[in-house]
Automatic annotation (TrEMBL):
Gene3D superfamilies: 3.40.190.80, Fructose-1,6-Bisphosphatase, subunit A, domain 1 (3.30.540.10)
Name of the protein in its database record: 3'(2'),5'-bisphosphate nucleotidase CysQ
Superkingdom: Bacteria
Alphabetized InterPro entries for the sequence: Inositol_monophosphatase-like, Inositol_monophosphatase_CS
GO MF term list: inositol monophosphate 1-phosphatase activity; metal ion binding
Cofactor: Mg(2+)
Gene Ontology biological process terms in this record: inositol metabolic process; phosphatidylinositol phosphate biosynthetic process; signal transduction
SUPFAM superfamilies assigned: Carbohydrate phosphatase
CDD domains registered for this protein in UniProt: CysQ
């Protein structure tokens, strides 16, 4: 029987994760991307090359969109594409943190249909999901929390996200936490370790695609900051912010982002 997309992503993540561990820490050569787009290391490129060889070697008809490759319009004509960030949380990777991840997804006609978030340096954790099949962590089913209100909720967000200008309806009284990888933040919400995550900034699709499906399959609601569901494999691969959480907490966060009256 042919390897499923999810099985392929899982295999690719584990093999490429081993490549990343060979560079892990401050010894990896690094430089800054142009235009203030953040740091990149030789590990990002090596992992990207490994993923490209494995994934396109198995599915040469799929399109390709990776943070570490130049985007091309050909992907827009493909019904299926691979959408990935070889190392999400590069700054943490450079600092020797364990909370960076490989974020891999398959997009089918604009929707995420298979996804993996793998943390090689954190015990080899692997979050996975396929559309309609639920979400797992290391093969065990996971579920998002069902908290009923925002007040006192445990929410992953940056310090900048707490600026009053981001909350026309008033800054909610949740407890803020942070992890550097967007993909991992979404996975932690799916696992139920946090009630929600938010980012007000535009988010690149490769950072959020895999975590989005894992969250949804774990029972969470995931939208942009306006409350609309993201679409993928579009000409501009960005989403205007992300809000993920159980239904009630998600609704409370979205309401607080909207002007009163």
């Amino acid at each position: 029987m042919p390897e499923s997309d999810l099985a392929l992503l899982t295999r690719a993540a584990r093999e490429a994760g081993a490549v990343a561990l060979g560079y892990h820490g401050p010894t990896a050569k690094r430089w800054d991307k142009p235009g203030g787009a953040g740091p990149v290391t030789e590990a990002d490129l090596a992992v990207n090359a490994a993923l490209r060889a494995i994934l396109l070697g198995a599915r040469p008809d799929y399109g390709w969109l990776s943070e570490e490759d130049s985007d091309t319009p050909e992907r827009l004509d493909r019904p299926k594409i691979f959408l990935l960030d070889p190392i999400d949380g590069t700054t943490g990777f450079i600092e020797g943190s364990s909370s960076w991840s490989l974020s891999l997804a398959v997009v089918t006609d604009g929707e995420i249909t298979a996804a993996v978030v793998h943390l090689p340096a954190d015990g080899g954790k692997l979050y996975a999901a396929a559309a309609g099949e639920g979400a797992t962590l290391d093969g065990r089913p996971i579920r998002a929390t069902t908290r009923e209100n925002v007040e006192g909720a445990q929410v992953l967000a940056t310090r900048a996200a707490m600026e009053p200008a981001n909350w026309p309806g008033g800054v909610p009284g949740f407890r803020r936490h942070h992890r550097p990888s967007l993909a991992y933040r979404l996975a932690l919400v799916a696992e139920g370790r946090f009630d929600a995550m938010i980012t007000h900034r535009d988010s690149w699709d490769w950072d959020i695609a895999a975590g989005l499906l894992i969250c949804r399959e774990a029972g969470a609601v995931v939208t942009d900051r306006a409350g609309d569901p993201p679409r993928f494999n579009t000409a501009d691969p960005r989403t205007p912010g992300i809000v993920a959480g159980g239904r009630a907490v998600h609704a409370g966060l979205i309401a607080a982002m909207r002007p009163r009256g």
